[in-house]
């Protein structure tokens, strides 16, 4: 596959291992299942092209404990490591080539060389309008209409963990209160963004047992763990199990627990084709001034996340981008059921925050457990090392949260 572009247009390049900036004279790239790189953009302010390559096994990255799972390499383009992408100059053109390398195909074999093309720019750039947006962020509390007017705020980012939006990625317990609040903000020409995405889902979800009945379609299978309520009610030993996600403390002191989701599924259409609860102006997208978008991993182990925002009539729209990650310490628990020294199963990778974390092993019965560590850091952070490991048994009481 060869995509020619005018050299005067292909000024900048981003993707395939490059964080952005001027396009190099030549670039070579190969597939890597740990990096989740599958696309590149070439262009300038007023014209550009983004190309993505994939196969029928494509799946968006599933985020577990802050880390994406391994990429499903496309069998067609990857071709056991023979495939790749090159960028080269040729006279007044720039040639973007995607190749799969040599292979032998049987008569009953089918290959799918899928690709997506996006032509940029998507809309007229309005810097003056962009820089007039003033955001307010807070989790435990939310601002009043009088406060945002006095502070000059015109977009409120309403995180979970407060009375209006208490639960992780499930703002449907307080729809009446949210409706009143958002309307009061709209009367002040202030938009409201709800923290409502699909990476993890609160265990307070009304449809918990319906979603569990779909096996691995909505929830990522795993060894369970997490809060005692999850151990008692979700049954990691029954069926496919689950992967515990993060926990939030609510204003009344109780806990909100969550489960890792598969990102894209029928749950992604909630409020549309499923005719679920409706909020504010209608279904969650686009009427609630909200949307959450892409996550990409860089070579230096940091992540870039983009948030897409639009209000109901699209008179106010924007994209936020932020970077996080860098130094990371993760731990996996391997389970040896019969004591032969060979692990029979393993947990997900758990992030070790500030040098410590708490893990529930009651759902991982075994003769032996083995801890497996993974250390990584950015190029400028220096080398990470383990000084010592201390294991302290804890007795955690039950909670109906």
Secondary-structure content class: mainly beta
Number of DSSP strand runs: 24
Spatial order of the strands forming the largest sheet: 1-9-8-3
- What level of helicity do the residues show? 10-25%
Distance between the termini: 53 Å
User: Number of helical segments?
Assistant: 7
Q: How much is the radius of gyration in Å?
A: 24 Å
Largest sheet: 4 strands, antiparallel
What report would you give on this structure?
It is a single chain. The protein is mainly beta. The protein has 7 helices and 24 strands. It has helices at 75-78, 127-130, 145-151, 175-186, 208-212, 228-233, 284-287; strands at 2-6, 12-15, 26-30, 39-43, 48-54, 63-64, 67-68, 84-90, 93-99, 114-120, 135-138, 155-158, 191-194, 200-202, 248-249, 255-256, 258-260, 295-297, 302-310, 317-325, 328-336, 345-346, 350-351, 368-376. The protein has a 4-stranded antiparallel β-sheet with strand order 1-9-8-3, with no helix packed on it. The radius of gyration is 24 Å and the shape is globular. It starts with a strand and ends in a 25-residue tail after the last strand.
Name a few traits of the molecule.
401 residues; mainly beta; 4-stranded antiparallel β-sheet; 2 domains; disordered C terminus; globular
Question: What's the arrangement of secondary structure elements?
Answer:
Elements: E1 2-6, E2 12-15, E3 26-30, E4 39-43, E5 48-54, E6 63-64, E7 67-68, H1 75-78, E8 84-90, E9 93-99, E10 114-120, H2 127-130, E11 135-138, H3 145-151, E12 155-158, H4 175-186, E13 191-194, E14 200-202, H5 208-212, H6 228-233, E15 248-249, E16 255-256, E17 258-260, H7 284-287, E18 295-297, E19 302-310, E20 317-325, E21 328-336, E22 345-346, E23 350-351, E24 368-376
Parallel strand pairs: 11-12, 12-13
Antiparallel strand pairs: 1-9, 2-4, 3-8, 4-5, 5-10, 6-7, 8-9, 14-17, 15-16, 18-19, 19-20, 21-22, 21-23, 21-24
